[in-house]
Amino acid sequence: MFVSVTNANVCTHSEKEVSGKILTNAIFLHDSSVIRNAVAIATSLTNVTGFSLLFGLAGALETLCGQAFGAEQFRKIGAYTYSSMLCLLLFCFPISLLWVFMDKLLELFHQDPLISHLACRYSIWLIPALFGYSVLQSMTRFFQSQGLVLPLFLSSLGALCFHIPFSWLLVYKLRFGIVSAADLESSDLLTIYKTSK
């Protein structure tokens, strides 16, 4: 029973992350190909160099919290979670530095300078999302280890309900362009964090 509930939580949370990325990219389908290319490259590189790395590092917390919960050592669950948050936040600083200089890295691999510049700008605006994601991953593992489904469901639902109208407002009405998509991902993580507390 516990394994199936945990797997359901992972699927639900991963689907929210993927759907947020899909919605963000879908908003730019009507923009120029240069912006689409920049968003696609930046999303790919930030996923590989940042979000996936944090997701993998937070995986250890799932084992530790699960063992502590099974042994009914509830204080250790909190200690492990806070330690994980701290470690992941520390990992965010070198990753952020890499994202700040992403345009130089892309030009090193002979990418178009305009696309490199836009991808760098997009990834710089994703830096707050990276820090939020590190806390989110720790909290997700905290809830999963105890079999708490409702906070994860409500936070994902709240972020989705917020994401769609806010995307439309920023991109089409306020014309913030590429910056708004990265800012949306950061605000989604803030919404998830607030509703899961």
What does this protein structure show overall?
- Belongs to the multi antimicrobial extrusion (MATE) (TC 2.A.66.1) family.
- One of its GO terms (molecular function) is xenobiotic transmembrane transporter activity.
- By secondary structure, the protein is an all-alpha fold.
- It has one domain.
- Helix content is 88%, strand content 0%.
- It starts with a helix and ends with a helix.
- The N terminus and C terminus are likely disordered.
Features:
single chain; 197 residues; mainly alpha; 8 helices; 0% strand; flat; disordered C terminus
Q: Main β-sheet, in a few words? A: none
Mind telling me the C-alpha Rg? 18 Å
Elements, N to C (H/E): HHHHHHHH
What gross morphology would you assign? Answer: flat
Helix content: over 70%
Structural class: mainly alpha
Number of helices: 8
Report, as a whole number of angstroms, the end-to-end distance. Answer: 25 Å
- Count all strands and give the number: 0
Summarize the structure.
With 197 residues, this protein is mainly alpha-helical.
